């Protein structure tokens, strides 16, 4: 019933927009830390050229977002890096406009003996995200350090991120790989918890790249080609929203809770300063994207559709 109501609302919005000479541009924001960058858009949707309107929706998971894109229900969305690439290599008409979140993954431990990456050898390490960036990041760094991630590391994937953070805080587990805001939650919940080394620094050592993307903003080909002014205005509004969120974490946290973006206000406000929100145009981010996607390709080709997406995946919108 909720899905029917949502589609009906979107249809009515589209009708009203068409009556005014424009279209309703449907945009999906992922609930959780990824979607917080859109908080300002939810609160104050921008006007778009040509009478176009913005219809924003918070979507519960990356899989649910992919399903909405496959069905053609969305014109733009935020996705994990590998999922965006996989949809493109599968032939879906969506192109990357920008990287909107860089690496914000940390090893958090309460074990005082863990000081370097090599100290993880033989220890159980709970990982938030099997088949996603945290796992593949870990695997690439392990190989660079001369470790076999399947033999020298004991990787556990059975706990969801909130439970991993809670288990670290309670002392039930001693080491984990967590993205924000869960890393911050674990650190605040246990005075013995710490980040012993920087995964970003180890990634740079491994690949030569200064950072790794976590999430990207994609748009439908038709929107980019047929309504370029609207595409530009939407991209600009999203970039401005990210800048506002970074400058106003407390207010952004309040908006995240108000618009059901998957996080309580206090948690979101605390996580924003530790979260690497950016808006890097697609072509400027291509080298970082391909460095990470190459790791996915080496470990699990099917995770990105069996090949790197071609140059046409990286859209260019005039600034």
Task: Describe the protein in words.
With 319 residues, the chain is an alpha/beta fold. The protein has 13 helices and ten strands. The strands form two sheets. Strands 2-1-3-9-4-10 form a six-stranded mixed beta sheet, sandwiched between helices. Helix 2 links the parallel strand 1 and strand 2. Helix 5 packs across helix 13, helix 6 packs parallel to helix 7 and helix 10 packs across helix 11. The chain is globular, with a radius of gyration of 20 Å. The N and C termini lie far apart (41 Å).
Kindly summarize this structure in a few lines:
This protein is of the alpha/beta class. 44% of the residues lie in helices and 18% in strands.
Key structural traits:
single chain, 319 residues, alpha/beta, four-stranded mixed sheet, globular
Q: Fraction of residues in helices?
A: 40-55%
pLDDT < 50 stretches: 1-20
Mean pLDDT: 91
Tally the beta strands: 10
Provide the gyration radius in Å: 20 Å
Largest sheet: 6 strands, mixed
Report the structural category.
alpha/beta
The secondary-structure element order is HEHEHEHEEEHEHEHHEHHHHEH
The number of helical elements comes to 13
Strand order of the largest sheet: 2-1-3-9-4-10
Give the overall form.
globular
Strand content: 15-25%
N-to-C terminal Cα separation, in Å?
41 Å
Outline the secondary-structure elements:
Blueprint: H1 2-19, E1 24-30, H2 39-43, E2 53-59, H3 62-70, E3 76-80, H4 81-89, E4 94-102, E5 105-109, E6 124-127, H5 133-144, E7 154-156, H6 161-170, E8 175-179, H7 182-189, H8 199-207, E9 213-220, H9 221-226, H10 228-247, H11 249-258, H12 265-271, E10 277-281, H13 282-299
Parallel strand pairs: 1-2, 1-3, 6-7, 6-8
Antiparallel strand pairs: 3-9, 4-9, 4-10, 5-8
